[in-house]
Amino acid sequence: MIPVLQTERLTLRAPEWRDFDDYAEFRGSDRTKLLGGPFTRAQAFTQLAEIAGHWVLRGFGRWIVADRETDLALGVVGLYYPEGWPEPEIAWSLFENGEGRGIAHEAALAARNYAYQTLGWTTAISLIDPTNSRSVALAKRMGCTDGETYHHETLGKMYIWRHPSPDAVDANTTFNHDPSKGTSHV
Fold this sequence. Notes:
Blueprint: E1 4-6, E2 10-13, H1 20-27, H2 41-58, E3 62-67, E4 73-80, E5 89-94, H3 103-118, E6 125-128, H4 133-141, E7 145-152, E8 156-162, E9 176-178, E10 183-185
Parallel strand pairs: 1-10
Antiparallel strand pairs: 1-2, 2-3, 3-4, 4-5, 6-8, 7-8, 9-10
Helix pairs in contact: 1-2
């Protein structure tokens, strides 16, 4: 079961079929060039299925980020560790309708808190293309430090941004996970 996380404005939930058109539109746009795109609808389907499958294989993964009031999909944020990745990652990709409002920051903090407080992660990274200024700015806002360069076999040069340790994360951020209900609140 994929847990549901909630923040003040957002619900992080499992991908559903109703998300596919928005997801395929995003993956088919030029906005995904830094992610290896644009992609066809068939490729987008495989990628959305991979999001669900990652949960089955790893026990954690990425969520659809949705507006808490309307349930409109705004992007994909969460935990990612495919074969060949250097370390577990906190990853984010927002659809155009989710940008510019602090959505990625709010969702990524919820994902990181879940990784640290529920899964017991002691470290996390974010792999970011050096030309992706918005993601670099978000990593800095989250307290990440840049480190080594990582060469991805298809995406090329990426920077490893290291998240602060669980002990260094703001103690004022509370996170409550209720496994019996499958929900968490930040």
